[in-house]
Design a protein that fits this description.
The chain has 325 residues and is an alpha+beta fold. The protein is 18% helix and 27% strand.
């Protein structure tokens, strides 16, 4: 897991995903760690990345005085406010109880900064290193050390006089130096044609299908969508693409309590209620939509005190990949 995930511990050693930065959509988790008449609860939020889970923050819940409900309705909602920032809100019976913003640890720039610094250092040394003299400069230096340069007066060598010569005897002229042979002409160096570099065409970006999921919870023995669930469905529909979905699956489920004969039709009614709500919100479910009820065949928990988790409808939508690279 190389992406960022925020999860909530809803039971001992059991976690449920709240936010996933691959989807960048708001998340919501109904908490099941709160028992009947519990005086205090600590809700732990963890940051998961590359297979490692580390605690990031805790919410302490103490039921307000005067509350008489047997099971308090607690829900933790989260939303992304930046690349590595998220905002968390804890609701008690539909009212905001606590909220806070968290910041996730980003990737370290040290593995990139060290090679980049070495490249800059080597580039500076290469620019400062003296380059070898060119052929023209070498010939100029040889001409300066040997024959006189054209345009300058040649320095005469001193004349020698024999020791026994008379004053009126002419002085012997030094033998003239033979003229220097002109340098052999060298054939001009062949000019290499610049190599033609054909730019490689960029590979098209590989996009994956876009997937969206949502879980809607219901009251016992009821297929009516609550006000809170209706708000979640509207927010979920607002962030969906406007094109028809290529895969739509809406699955209704029921709790283990109650008569077995009524579980299957109740789960079907719940799935149809969610499907109708999405269509009313303008969601195009496509031609291959599956709306089914499974009764109590696929429970999330068999704990009789946690059957609210089984009274649910799971929405799974898949859209074709976008053309963005």
């Amino acid at each position: 897991m190389s992406h960022n995930v925020l999860s909530v511990e809803i039971e001992h050693t059991r976690y449920k995903t709240l936010l996933d930065d691959r989807k960048r959509v708001d998340g919501s988790v109904r908490l099941t760690t709160i028992q009947a008449h519990q005086n205090r609860a600590v809700i732990s939020v963890y940051h998961e990345r590359q297979g490692k889970r580390s605690p990031i923050t805790d919410f302490e819940f103490i039921p307000p005085r005067g509350t008489s409900e047997e099971f308090p309705d607690l829900r933790l909602e989260g939303s992304w406010t930046g690349k590595n920032h998220a905002h968390l809100r804890l609701f008690h019976n539909g009212r905001l109880y606590a909220e806070r913003s968290v910041r996730l640890a980003g990737r370290s720039l040290l593995p990139v900064a060290i090679p980049l610094g070495l490249l800059l250092l080597l580039g500076g040394l290469w620019l400062m290193w003296p380059s070898p003299p060119t052929e023209t400069e070498a010939r100029s230096r040889t001409a300066t050390r040997g024959a006189p340069v054209a345009g300058e007066a040649a320095t005469e060598s001193p004349r020698t006089r024999p020791p026994d010569a008379r004053p009126d005897q002419p002085v012997d002229e030094p033998p003239a130096a033979p003229p220097a042979a002109p340098p052999a002409e060298q054939p001009p160096a062949a000019t290499e044609a610049p190599a033609t570099v054909t730019p490689e065409s960029p590979e098209p970006g590989i996009s994956e299908p876009r997937e969206y999921e949502l879980v809607v919870y219901f009251r016992p023995d009821s297929a009516q969508i609550t006000a809170h669930a209706a708000q979640e469905l509207r927010a979920f529909a607002a962030q969906l693409p406007t094109t028809p979905a290529t895969y739509s699956r809406i699955s209704g489920h029921a709790a283990l309590a109650g008569p077995p004969a009524g579980r299957l039709p109740l789960s079907r009614q719940r799935a149809e209620a969610v499907s109708a709500k999405l269509l009313t919100a303008g969601v195009q479910l496509g031609s291959d939509v599956q709306v089914r009820g499974f009764g109590a065949e696929q429970p999330l928990t068999r704990n009789p005190e946690l059957q609210d988790e089984n009274r649910r409808v799971e929405v799974e939508l898949r859209y074709p990949p976008s053309n963005r690279r």
